[in-house]
Amino acid sequence: MIRPVRPEDCDELAALYAANRDFLAPFEPVRPPEFFTGDGQRDRLARQLADETHPFAILDGEAIAGTINVFHIVRESLQGCTIGYWVDGSRNGRGLATEAVGEVVNYAFGELDLHRVEAATLVENIASQRVLEKNDFDRIGLARGFLRIAGDWRDFVLFQRIADGRG
Q1: Does some domain include residue 32?
Q2: pLDDT digits (tens, 9 = 90+) for 115-136
Q3: Residue 48 maps to which CATH number?
Q4: Which site from 1, 26, 76, 92 is most exposed, i.e. has the minimal number of CB atoms within 10 Å?
Q5: DSSP string, 56-104
């Protein structure tokens, strides 16, 4: 269901982002035009890997249907990370995000040996909140003005999952 993003995926990712530009606009930062190109995605992948982000492709068969990333990894006493994900608008409602979140949480708690995984959703993004709840994430609060989305500072609901199962 998920696999690491590879440089050869960048043209396919660019096309998928371009096809979902209007769908994703209410949920994401304003993106520069080069973001929607293969070269822009290759540059982004190189930055992610340099920042110790773990980018994964969400697969629908052999096709890329979205991405899920493990980022903001903090070691020492926190042993935590943040995840973020999206799925192609035409494939929403099929459980792809739910399954991908489950797999990436297993990766975070297993291979990365982390203790805590965080995620955040726009307050009105009930579908994404359900994805997290189905994966045993607990709602832990509201972050006011958390991220600049579509040009405005927006409030987000925060979620966490702890490796030992305690919210």
Answers
A1: yes
A2: 999 999 999 999 999 999 999 9
A3: 3.40.630.30
A4: 76
A5: EEEEETTEEEEEEEEEEEE-TTT-EEEEEEEE-GGGTTSSHHHHHHHHH
